[in-house]
Each structure stands twice: as structure tokens, then as C-alpha cells.
Amino acid sequence: MCIYATIMSTLAPIYESSAFGPFIGVFFGFVFNYIYQSYKNNQDKNKYISMIKSEFGICICILEEDAMKVLPRDHWISAVNSGALKLFDVKSELEPLTTVYNTIGEHNNDIPTGLLWKDDLQLKEKRDLLLLELKKLKSEKWLDAKSWWQFWR
After folding, report:
1. Most CB atoms closer than 10 Å: which of 16, 42, 82, 132?
2. What is the C-alpha to C-alpha distance for residues 81 and 84, in angstroms, rounded to an integer?
3. Whose CA is closest to 55, among 117, 100, 109, 5?
4. Where are the domains of the chain?
5. pLDDT digit string (tens) for 115-133?
């Protein structure tokens, strides 16, 4: 009992000081802000993931039509310009996305005017490879939206 009294008498000035309350308030403010920012980042990432998945679906439909159309990249450009790439894991998420969207950009630059896909074998091979890449990437597990609580487990 004597040790307890000694410890409490030593810590009493800390609890009684006027700086303890504001310190605790600032500490919890930082904690709540961190939790809120994590929640907002997760919401933003899920928004961009759903936009990119829908863009993949459009690209797949266009490529399967055997049509000579420009593939959309608007959602990717929006994510790049908004700085949302910081929300993605570099190795497992950002590198495959960058590779596919660079391939889409090359595809859009390679569309010749007046030629059909069936006439140019090299373009057809590139289109088929891009179609396979898009289908594979669209089925990746990380492209499924995750709830905010899954990040805290």
C-alpha cells in the first residue's frame, strides 16, 4: 500500500496541472483525425476503383466488337490528375494499372484511319493481348471494393 501511495503522490502533479487536459484533447484530436482520414481515403479509393472497373468493362466491350474505336481513359486520367494514385499500393495495384493504361494509350495511337482490324495482323494481335490483359486485371481480387473496417483488421 505504501508503494501505491508513493506512485500516486508522484503522479498527482501531472493530473492536477493545467496542461494535462489540453494535451489529452490534442492527442484525441489527432487520433480522430487519423481515423477520419483513413475512412475518407478508403471511400475515395473505392470510388476510383469502381470508375476504373467500369472503364475496363467499356474497353472490353469495344475490343470484343472488333470495332476500330478509341478506348476510354478518362477515369484513369482523372485519378492521375487528382493525386489519387497515392491511395494505391505501388507493386500490386499501381504497376498493373499503369501498364494496362499505357497499352491502351498505345492502342489509341495505333488506330490507323481507313484500315480494318481484320486486315492488319499486328494490330489484331496487340488488340487480343490488350483484351486478355484487361480481362485478367478486371478479375483481380484487389479491384473488389473493400469496406473501411477491413483495413483495420
Report:
1. 42
2. 8
3. 100
4. 46-142
5. 555 566 777 788 888 888 8
